Each structure stands twice: as C-alpha cells, then as structure tokens.
Amino acid sequence: MGENNPFSRALAAYVEAVLAKDVDAFAALYDQDIHVFDMWGTWSIHGLAAWREMAAGWFSSLGDERVVVSCDSADSTVSEDLAIGHAILTYTAVAPDGTALRSLSNRATMALRRTGDSWKIFHEHTSAPIDHQSQQAILRRDDG
Fold it and tell me: How many Cβ atoms sit within 10 Å of the Cβ of residue 72?
C-alpha cells in the first residue's frame, strides 16, 4: 500500500487526528452517512453527528493524556470509487511526559467511497476476539 492508497491516507489522518485530539479532523474522515459497528459501549452508531459526539466525548475524557495509534498488518483493495481495508490498531495512552500508561489493540475494517475528489469512510467495524472461557475481549495481540 502506497501513500496514494485512500485507505493508507485515511489511516495516517486517523492517527494524526487522534493524537491531536482534533474532533474536526477526525470527523472530516467520515461520510455524513457513516455507520460504525464499534466495540465500545454501543452496538452501532449511525450518522456523522453521532460519531462526532462519540469522538468529542472520547477526546475530552483523556484529560492531559494523549493516544498514540499504531497500525499493523494493514491491507486493502481499491477500485475506481471504493476502497476496503483492514488493520490491527493499537491504542497507547501516554502521559504529558511521553510515558506509556496503558494500551490495547483491536481489529478495524473500513470501507471508503470516493465523493468528488475526496475519499470518505462510510462504514467502520472494530472488533476483538472473545475468550470462550472468560467471555472477555482479548485486547492484546499475541500472534504477532
């Protein structure tokens, strides 16, 4: 995947927006009709206003912490007006001095469509495997 790949560009912009806690930059990645199957708290979120509200709440809950997002195993398929990609995203909370406080990983799939000269995410799905014994999400990747 190169820098001209819309999925790669979306991931890079996502990483920057989350680190900056920039709600406007975050929301700009998404289509007005975004539909998200998020693994945190709600079954799904529909519409940019609701997704923006989620981001504003997330970023404000961090206080003076920041979140560094790293991407692994990213891959995508791109056609003329549609891009589908998936990656493992690791979210690491860092203190103002840069000390890593905690981290977790999840699986993300994003579907983007070309709208004029830009690409917007219109569907996002995040997940983590569930341990059958404990019924708890596995938030640390151990398979490399």
Answer: 11
